[in-house]
Design a protein that fits this description.
8 strands, 211 residues
């Protein structure tokens, strides 16, 4: 039984993307495929996610980039009760995405309704698809809270992400050699030292079960 649905963003996820690794390494995880990754239409993407949710008794959603906005559009849909929780990684600002990809993304208005299910947002401090100010607004609108202290604790942040994925804890990564940036972010067993810098901006309203 599928318990985790992985939702890529614009142009999908390549074979070496962390979402593809997650899907291959976790038997209870599946990647939600779209008919058109390059020119996404919200209603078409929702239809595919509806189909995936219909085949489960309930699932956690793990979304990336534009996929986070797809999840955010599920605040009040028929299959919303089947969503147990969501991990939203590097969400994008819809207006910025449209500016960078004109005449490509058809996602209506940016969904900013409060989510009825627990969610954890992982954002970048230097993402050109969403500024820190936009990210904080996005997190607040979804019903979570910004926790700036997480930016100063990237190791603890990545351990939380690994726990949600069901991966074991790992030793603290070595300090980066980049001047002024001693942080490292670990995801899926890969350590990214220095840029981009990541931080967890929100905490679940209640613990997310790993079962």
């Amino acid at each position: 039984m599928i318990k985790t649905l992985l939702i890529p963003g614009l142009n999908g996820s390549t074979d070496d993307h962390w979402q593809r690794h997650w899907a291959r390494e976790r038997p209870a995880a599946a990647l939600v495929e779209q008919d058109d990754w390059a020119c996404p239409v919200l209603e078409d993407w929702q239809e595919r996610l509806d189909e995936a949710l219909s085949d489960t008794d309930g699932a956690f959603l793990v979304a990336h980039s534009l996929g986070c906005l797809l999840v955010a559009s599920y605040a009040r849909r028929r299959l919303t009760p089947r969503i147990k929780g969501a991990l939203l990684v590097a969400p994008c600002d819809l207006a910025t995405t449209r500016r960078l990809h004109p005449c490509v993304v058809q996602f209506g208005n940016e969904p900013l309704d409060r989510l009825p299910f627990p969610s954890l947002v992982v954002g970048s401090l230097n993402d050109h698809y969403m500024s820190l100010e936009q990210l904080e607004r996005h997190v607040a609108s979804l019903g979570q809270r910004a926790d700036d202290d997480r930016f100063r604790r990237p190791y603890q942040c990545c351990q939380r992400v690994r726990a949600l994925a069901g991966w074991p804890r790992i030793p603290r990564p070595a300090r980066a050699r980049h001047r002024g940036d001693p942080s490292g972010f670990v995801l899926g067993g890969r350590c990214h030292i220095g840029r981009p810098r990541f931080g967890c901006l929100s905490l679940p309203k209640r613990p997310i079960s790993r079962r």
